Here is the input.
Amino acid sequence: MKKRERKALISRVKRVVIKIGSSVLTNEYGELSEGVFGQIAKEVSGMKSRGIEPILVSSGAIAAGMKKLRLGDKPRDISMKQAIAACGQSTLIWYYEKAFSEFGERVAQILLTHDGLSVRKRFLNARKTLFTLLKMGVIPVINENDTVAFEEIMFGDNDNLAALVTSLVEADLLILLSDIDGLYNKNPRNHADAELISVIEEIDERVEEIAGETLGKTTTGGMRTKIEASRTAAAFGVPTIISNGKKPNPLSEIFSGKETGTLFLPAKERIKGRKHWIAFTLKPVGEVVIDEGA
Here is the structure.
């Protein structure tokens, strides 16, 4: 893709979903960084003043909860994680409210569950609420409602939640901000000649293999879920950009049309509305047992 084509694609964006990972929001001690929230608020407010409607999907509740509860290591037990997230969610939204108030902006906390969105009526009601907030000029800040979700029906990560929200609000672009520059052709930690891939036209087996190799065992899941999210958005006809949110002005860089991060192009044939909801939001429930006499 030529630079002018990328710039033209970005210039058409009127509504964007921005997923912000915990690694972007925290400092080297794993604590929420007030300065980072201020920078995000500055960029998003500037974007909004140019007529672009932003929807944020934010991690960080567990990081905030661990600080509040003075915990050291992140627990593996799901009920403990849920309790920590419950303690941290109010702190997380407070950081956003404080940061955006400096620019005269208002935010709204939205907590979603996969179980809720898998019911079509609730899905449409959530859409209506989000559209009303956008019409009022309020910036939605979305997170998974970890406290009431259970493992079998959780989104699993906010990358996939962000992709489903992209369909929910009919956005034009999905941005996944993390502490990585994008997708490399090989693991940059092991290969000095690793190159950042600027554009992915189609997510095939080779792309999935690269994602599995790029960051090693400790963070492979992170890149894999970003690829899954990009595929979900692509099926809805929406491009995705994976970019480094730790770098200065990441959103401004993207919206200036610069070749930053990895751009995943949308699928040539879009799965529309209800069919996309069936394909990517619904999860199989129950089982069918067929005995020998069937």
Remarks:
- The mean pLDDT is 86.
